[in-house]
Amino acid sequence: MAKIKTLSPDVVAKIAAGEVVERPASVVKELLENALDAQSASVKVEVLGSGRKLIRVTDDGEGMTGEEVLQAIQSHTTSKIESLEDLFSLRTFGFRGEALASISAVSRVRITTRKEGQLSGNEVRVEGGTLCHAGETGCPSGTSVEVRDLFFNVPARLKFLKSPGTELGHISEILAKAALANPRTRFQLFHEGKLLANYPSRQDPSARLVEALGKEVEGNIFPFRLQQGELRVEGFGGEPDLNRPNGRGIYLFVNRRPVRDRLLTHAILEGYRNVIPKDRYPVAVLLAEVPPAEVDVNVHPGKWEVKFANSEMVHRLVIHAVRGMIEEMPWLKTERATQSEEFKERPVAYLPQGRETPLPLSWTDSVRVQSKGDYRETGRVPGSGIAFLGQVQETYLVFVSPEGMLLLDQHAAHERILLEKLSNDLFHGGISKQPLLLSEVIELSTNEAEIIDEHLGDLARMGFDLEPAGLRTFWVKSVPQILADQDPLETLRETVKEISSWGKDASLKNSYDSLLKMMACHGAIQAHRPMGGEEARALWTDLQNCRFPSHCPHGRPTQIKISHFDLEKMFGRR
């Protein structure tokens, strides 16, 4: 008896449908893509029972002839490609010819369609993959696809669906993504006859942001754009304070196709690195335009994944674009301190290659607190229009500007300054050291000593010169200069614990960031420390010369702006 058997066409169809149709939202996605490929200006989606009972997608696109609609419900029939080479010049969303056939295999489908200029339309009804009816009918131009009783013939699939609210949420998200990538197309979503979402046609893509992402993004999300050759990345990024506990606020598109891509997600997160809190995610919409020959979209059954021919270039361009937007601080526009022309003209860059120069710690190197007292003396920062008023709780610095008031968190601001200086020094060879007059001894556990012995060179670049003095002890010969007046050995112990937690053979090359943040936090001035006017003005000036002055390395704001409008509103004048 033969063990290998040929599957029946019915089983083959249901297996294929399982790859394409996972849930009601999968049906909506496929039908929306067909509508967009048909050059539709308006698309209406109607659902009953969160898509289990009915999904109807109606468009005003090109429509189909009777012969075309009969071909469309067959497997592997498409008008999008003719040869394998066409896969690498795709300008359409669909191309496999699987959607309608797969949907028809697991539901009851009715399609009505008419081409513009034809006197009558055509109707086709399919049930569980079997053609039940085909003929002429009266209908408006365009196409309407009704999908009823999804998974009626594969009830085992129904138990894997989530709650009605969850399934409806997935449908809403699919429609929002289509609306974000296609602003000139009108979209509507109805559930049980009630309008849930309405996306009017927009000439300006930014108008879609509030409609698709919610009111919270209004005034808090800003555009970015960068191009290299034929590769272009653009989109919108939220201010750092607009962050979420998960990545659901990140929307990725490649050639207007919604995708889930680790490379692009990582690039977005890298762009926001050190300006949002740990384990938080920004709100961002990324639209990458890549030459079709440079991207493979035939990777995932649901067309959610892509592969880039030059992934490194795409990754770097996205980082540059996002960081360029963050550097401009559009959410906190203030008049910056006078900067040299050299500083102003440097291009946006991810790594500090020619962008960053050592930042003078003028306020720590040349100015010290005289004594406690009332530091309310007012003085203007030369060329800035900024005047220092005083401190609040010896923690927050108060400035007045032509636009209103500025409040600085002195610890967060200094953390940002130190992190950028440390990063720049490390990139250019090593962090400045302060030799100790008398070497200190630090004793470690056996495991810590073994691991740290591997990284003595890395620690030396970070400013800690250690020399073995036994099995578990080391002489500390020098410490980072910024820690000389603090407790450098405490910082060294924390650094050792952090490195040891990574285990043996760990590479510090990609892990310096967390260590530098730790050093910046320990080296920065603390809260409840009095500061005079000259120090405060020097701190403000140095902060404005940072690449990312608005937030500290942990994602807390370094400064808060209160405009004249805000003040008038607070006092009831508006």
Description:
The chain has 574 residues and is an alpha+beta fold. The chain has three domains: 9-199, Heat Shock Protein 90 (2-Layer Sandwich); 207-330, Ribosomal Protein S5, domain 2; 349-574, MutL, C-terminal domain, regulatory subdomain (Ribosomal Protein S8, Chain: A, domain 1), CATH 3.30.1370. The protein has 18 helices and 25 strands. The strands form six sheets. An eight-stranded mixed beta sheet has the order 5-4-3-6-2-1-7-8. A five-stranded mixed beta sheet has the order 9-10-15-12-13, with helices on both faces. The protein has a five-stranded antiparallel beta sheet with strand order 18-19-20-21-25. The N and C termini lie far apart (88 Å).
Topology overview:
Blueprint: H1 9-20, H2 24-37, E1 42-48, E2 54-59, H3 66-72, H4 99-105, E3 108-114, E4 121-127, E5 130-137, E6 142-148, H5 155-158, H6 164-181, E7 186-191, E8 194-199, H7 207-213, E9 221-228, E10 231-238, E11 243-244, E12 250-254, E13 257-258, H8 262-271, E14 281-282, E15 284-289, E16 295-296, E17 307-308, H9 311-327, H10 341-345, H11 362-365, E18 379-381, E19 386-392, E20 396-401, E21 404-409, H12 410-427, E22 433-443, H13 446-454, H14 456-461, E23 465-468, E24 473-480, H15 488-501, H16 512-523, H17 533-544, E25 559-563, H18 564-570
Q: Uncertain regions: pLDDT < 50 for 5+ in a row? A: 334-379
Tell me the domain tally: 3
* Morphology: elongated
Q: In DSSP terms, counting alpha (H) and pi (I) runs of 4 or more, how many helices? A: 18
**Mean model confidence by pLDDT:** 84
**Beta-strand percentage?**
15-25%
For the biggest β-sheet, the strand order reads 5-4-3-6-2-1-7-8
- Tell me the span between the first and last alpha carbons: 88 Å
Radius of gyration over alpha carbons?
A: 30 Å
Helix content: 25-40%
By CATH, the topology of the largest domain is: Ribosomal Protein S8, Chain: A, domain 1
Q: Judging by the overall fold, what is the CATH architecture of the largest domain?
A: 2-Layer Sandwich
